[in-house]
Specification:
Helices cover about 65% and strands about 0% of the residues. With about 600 residues, it is mainly α. It has a domain of about 240 residues. The protein is globular, with a radius of gyration of 24 Å.
Length: about 600
């Protein structure tokens, strides 16, 4: 418990300055590194023919994002198909098969990083760098760019300008992802993670057998896979291996890397909305708005100044969801397996099956809950061996897809739920709902409802297809309830752009490669386009004045309402299938 508490406390200390920095990048404010980065950005704009002063409406922004990502999907697919060439291929890896290439490139461009292959045996160093590592930067930057555009729309400073996608892509990559990756990568190298272009090393073990030790540019991939909430890994076992994750310090570096930017996005949202509200309030209370701003800021609490009032309530809601999941996962894994107690084996250590002894129950539960809350599909223990309820938490958090989430998309998702929450509260009192000073009307509710429905529709439809067809059933390696959990986990991971897996599923087949590829593609781009449409609709509306009947969305009570709305929707949507999977398995195990 103390380990977990200290880990979270250190995270809160780190996320605040990161959030302030990302806010300055998103809002175009000055940072200490501008003299260097402005020149780099300017050179890229000049080479690519981008005018940073040209803004875009939400439609042009969404089209630019999808087309740019589509072109990179095509180029990445070609590289995977020709990776057998001798360039950066000391281990002689052959070309990747067609359906697996399709799945892999969709996976990494959509920030999912679902791996139906083992990196050490399935990819050349050329593919690891030009496809996997490169896509980790671009896909993460694309998600963060969409999030920033979404926030600009909600802040409503203009009627039709959410920014320039190409400018946001460059600024996030150059000013956030690259410098953070360099620092984090050097820290991982310091802890013993390899970073070279050597071929694999064959060594003699003390048992007298041969062992292959993977080499390659591991650290560079490791840091951006966590920082960009990408997931996957250079090796098939991901961060459960000492090569990717050699020490408890490297484990913490990877934890904080994946938690940092999603939390920073919430602070960015709060501060950008706060800027708009502050300016409006200052204009009302004084002719000299600049003189009134310090007075307004002086009336705010410390947390409101740090997170912004709206950002504070969103961060609280996400934090409550995260802590509930973490508590259940830690408790479930601490209970152990009653089947072992029946044969006289002690369970004082809890369920250690599939876990690293050096990390134990606490850090394994923390890592498990974090990667599926911040949608980073990497693992430091095997999820297929989790207890039924322990395995249900990562499954549930991917189904919710709002517990911080990754690359800014989690923030966009929970704000969609916030719109739903104010609509429900408005119905209760017979008042037109409002969010961030804008009326929520029929168009916004239709878009929000469609956005929320897409996620469970993809998970449940394709899961039903898998258990109803011979090709889908052929991949299930565990009979009964656990087999259904494997199927649900695979499609929930794909739809949430997470990428982790129970790893007991035989998924490298035509059926699983194509179906999960489609789920990843639609689960990524359809919600982004719909959420940008919501922002585009709201930014054109006039601000309405607060009244006695206005629902304040910047309070602790609204955070609690938001948590209940998320859980109620999840219960109505996913409880029946969860009851047939992990819940039934738990009841059977403890009968």
């Amino acid at each position: 418990m103390l380990q977990i508490a200290l880990t979270i406390l250190i995270y809160l200390i780190l996320v605040i300055p990161a959030g302030v920095y990302v806010y300055h990048i998103a809002a175009g404010k000055y940072t200490f590194a501008d003299p260097v980065f402005n020149r780099v950005d300017g050179a890229i704009y000049k080479v690519c023919g981008v005018n940073p002063k040209n803004g875009m409406n939400w439609k042009k922004y969404a089209v630019s994002l999808v087309i740019t990502n589509g072109i990179m999907i095509l180029l990445g697919y070609i590289i995977l198909r020709i990776q057998s060439i001798g360039l950066f291929n000391p281990n002689g890896i052959g070309a990747m098969e067609e359906s697996l290439s399709f799945n892999t490139i969709i996976s990494f461009m959509t920030n999912t990083n679902l791996q139906h292959y083992s990196g050490e045996s399935g990819l050349s160093y050329l593919s690891q760098m030009l496809v996997i590592t490169f896509m980790m930067f671009v896909s993460a930057a694309s998600g963060y760019a969409a999030c920033i555009a979404f926030i600009r729309g909600l802040a409503g400073r203009t009627k039709d300008n959410v920014g320039n996608f190409f400018v946001d892509l460059v600024r996030i990559t150059i000013r956030v992802l690259l410098p953070f990756s360099i620092i984090g990568g050097l820290l991982l190298v310091w802890q013993g993670v390899p970073q070279n272009f050597s071929g694999n090393v064959v060594v003699d073990t003390i048992e007298g057998t041969k062992q292959v030790i993977a080499m390659g540019p591991v650290a560079a991939l490791e840091i951006i896979k966590h920082l960009g909430t990408n997931g996957g890994g250079f090796l098939g076992a991901n961060s459960a291996t000492p090569i990717e994750n050699p020490t408890i310090i490297s484990n913490l570096i990877e934890l904080y890397s994946m938690m940092l930017l999603p939390g920073a996005c919430v602070i960015t949202f709060g501060k950008m909305v706060r800027d708009r509200k502050r300016d409006l309030a200052a204009a009302v209370v004084a002719d000299d708005a600049a003189a009134a701003i310090p007075q307004i800021e002086g009336r705010e609490s410390l947390t409101a100044r740090i997170f912004g009032r709206e950002g504070r309530s969103i961060f609280m809601a996400m934090g409550i969801l995260f802590l509930i999941g973490l508590g259940v996962c830690f408790w479930a894994e601490s209970q152990g397996n009653p089947a072992l107690a029946e044969v006289g084996l002690a369970q004082s250590m809890g369920s250690m099956e599939g876990k690293e002894v050096r990390f134990g129950i606490a850090q394994s539960a923390m890592f498990t809950t974090t990667i599926t809350s911040f949608t980073t599909g990497t693992v430091n223990n095997m999820h297929d061996t989790l207890t039924p309820l322990g395995g249900m938490i990562p499954l549930l958090h991917m189904m919710l897809n709002v517990v911080f989430g990754g690359k800014g998309v989690g923030l966009m998702n929970i704000i969609t739920y916030a719109i739903l929450a104010v609509f429900i509260c408005g119905l209760m009192i017979g008042r037109t709902p409002e969010y961030l000073g804008k009326k929520i009307e029929g168009r916004e509710m239709k878009l929000a409802a469609l956005c929320i429905i897409i996620h469970p529709l993809l998970i449940l439809t394709f899961s039903a297809l898998a258990v109803a067809t011979p090709d889908g059933l052929a991949g299930i390696t565990n009979p009964g309830y656990h087999g259904l959990s494997q199927v649900l986990y695979e499609f929930a991971s794909s739809a949430a752009n997470n990428g982790s897996g129970f790893e007991g599923l035989a998924d490298n087949t035509l059926f699983w490669n194509i179906t999960t590829g489609l789920v990843m593609f639609f689960g990524r781009y359809l919600p982004i386009v719909l959420q940008l449409a919501i922002a585009g609709s709201l930014m054109k509306k006039r601000f309405v004045s607060e009244s006695a009947g206005t629902l304040h969305t910047d309070t602790m009570s609204f955070a609690v309402i938001l948590v209940f709305v998320v859980y109620i929707f999840a219960a109505l949507t996913f409880f029946p299938v969860l009851a047939l999977g992990p819940v039934a398995e738990h009841l059977t195990l403890w009968a």
